[in-house]
Specification:
By secondary structure, the protein is mostly helical. Helices cover 46% and strands 8% of the residues. The protein has a domain of 65 residues.
């Protein structure tokens, strides 16, 4: 299943957007995932995560710059990404430390 198909399923019937917006959001989410992980290519296992990031960005349009959201008499921080997505991205380390100490030079 393509990332676009996954995104449409996640957005459900409310998604009346054309594919251009959805493809833009998917590209933006993929670039975020690649920058976060330090990878140059997106592994197939991260495609659903990228679709989820794009869905979150779709649903948060117009909320840029907000620090909290109020609903139902309560307030919560406007977290950019939930922990499940961060954990999925963290499974791909941003860098690899080979030696934490530089060799001594005489």
């Amino acid at each position: 299943m393509s990332a676009l198909d996954m995104l449409k399923i996640l957005l459900g019937e409310e998604c009346g957007s054309d594919d251009k917006l959805l493809l833009f959001l998917l590209d933006e989410a993929e670039q975020y995932a690649l920058a976060y992980t330090g990878l140059s290519e997106l592994p197939a296992r991260l495609v659903p995560t990228v679709a989820r990031i794009a869905a979150i960005n779709y649903n948060q349009r117009g909320m840029e710059g907000m620090s909290s959201v109020s609903a139902g008499g309560g307030s919560r921080p406007a977290d950019p990404l939930p922990g499940t997505i961060i954990r999925a991205l963290d499974a791909y380390p941003a860098g690899k430390v080979v030696n934490i100490r530089a060799p001594r030079r005489n």
